[in-house]
Amino acid sequence: MPHHPVSFALHGGAGDMPQRDHGYAEHLAALQAIGTQVQSALQDGLPALDAVEMGVRLLEDCEHFNAGRGAVLNTLGEAELDASIMGGDGACGAVAATRRPRNPVTLARALLNDGRHVMLAGAHADAACERLGISMAEPEYFIIEDRQRQLERARAHATVMLDHDEPLGTVGAVARDRHGRLAAATSTGGMTNKAAGRVGDTGVIGAGTWANDQTCAISTTGHGESFIRVNAAAQIHWRMSLGHEPMHAAAELVIQQVVDCGGMGGLIGVDRDGLVCLPMSTLGMFRAWSELDAPVRSAVFR
Ligand code: ASP
Question: Which of 80, 160, 202, 286 best tests ligand 1's pocket when mutated (most atoms within 8 Å of CB)?
């Protein structure tokens, strides 16, 4: 049985978060604990695709992050959730502007398994939960008080806010398993005070999520419109595959393109050799990672 050392990374959102006395201890503790669970599951032989779904589910369930419960709210005060997942064999699934799956990444995974369609959106995606046996929640389940206050502040300033002034963020996971297979998954509530129906990079395969066993697995976070414009996650794969660039160089270049088109953010990547990259244009990105079976580390600032 092949016995590759395993690697993974998780993110909990990128942004220009302020320095805080407590140093975001709760977020780091959550990332470190979830990272430790993901690592030991990978070491026990869990496939990369299951590991990234598991990591993102745990982050969705954690109120500290902008995905699942605790997601940011749109102009109507609703949580509209985007998520996507992809395996290194090219199988993928995505959901956009959903309001009912308790774990949007698991609905995306069910679409991947089902194999007929890559992406479902809105009320029809919600309705598919029952057919696919995905557990649902009332729309109120996702809404927490902090997010309602954040929406009030965004409304007062008439802006669409990234999560960057708050200690919270979009979530994602990338992994390489014992067989050397890669996978990536990402999940979000998007941006505070976004238009109802707006879909960001997180729901778009190629922009927010990409995996290919020959190159890399990528999950992004930041200003979604910019990541869509530069086809961020897939572009890193193509640069590696056609341009023979190493992942970290391709990833830095793509982050620069995001900045050049007026955006900001970061990403996590793991390549076929199990190397991890964590580039960002922001002051910080909540993250936990391990390269080649090394102990799990976590960090907030650059
Ligand atoms: N990329 C997400 C979006 O634009 C937001 C984030 O990463 O925090 O929907």
Answer: 202
